[in-house]
Amino acid sequence: MLRVLLVEDEENIRETVKLNLELDGFEVVTAENGRKALKHSQEQHFDVMVVDVMLPEVDGFQVVEQIRLTDRETPIIFLTAKDQAQDRIQGLKKGADDYLTKPFVFEELLLRVRRLIERTSKNPDVQPDLYTFGGNKINFATYEAVGNQGEFTLTKKEAMLLKLLTDRRGEVVSRQHILQSVWGYDVYPSTRTIDNFILSFRKYFEEDPRTPVHFLSVRGVGYKFVE
Prior knowledge:
Blueprint: E1 3-7, H1 11-23, E2 27-31, H2 34-43, E3 48-51, H3 60-67, E4 76-80, H4 85-93, E5 98-101, H5 106-121, E6 130-133, E7 136-139, E8 144-147, E9 150-153, H6 156-167, E10 172-174, H7 175-183, H8 191-205, E11 215-218, E12 222-225
Parallel strand pairs: 1-2, 1-3, 3-4, 4-5
Antiparallel strand pairs: 6-7, 7-8, 8-9, 10-12, 11-12
Helix pairs in contact: 2-3, 6-7
Protein name: Response regulator transcription factor
GO molecular function, one term: transcription cis-regulatory region binding
Keywords: DNA-binding, Phosphoprotein, Transcription, Transcription regulation, Two-component regulatory system
């Protein structure tokens, strides 16, 4: 049985969509807020996720961005009342595969869900998620990397932070956003922890760690990755 994570804070919509998906043969797990959605996504396997944007505690854009730090394969559809072009663009940039606005016809949602699952099932082999810059290489699927001192293996947290920075290359990412996305919303490490990770990245990937060109500090805000 195919499994769906349905994230929707409006009870009537959540229960209606859940019932219709179950009648069509899906097993449905629901979450009414972003924190619960992240917990389910970390602890269980799903064949597709349907996520509202305007959620309490952690919004849908943040939920998907955090999921995509470790899961690039599970199809995700945004189901939301936010129907402006910039909202759709932002949703797709965060890692969603599709975007359906409310009000919607259930048959259309079901068709999109099944097409995404079918597309994924036709490509069951996970392709290495490779990223290169300068003479450096990072495989986010295996955590293997090649830097200025040769091959080595990243920790999971290192890979997640690198993924966040490289996905948002050219943008300043605040320390608070890094802590929430990489360490989670219930863990509060010192911001010095992030500084130490960045120092490690400079040692791994910069020709001259004392004069970085890729991992840049933005005083009082956070960090920026530049290719």
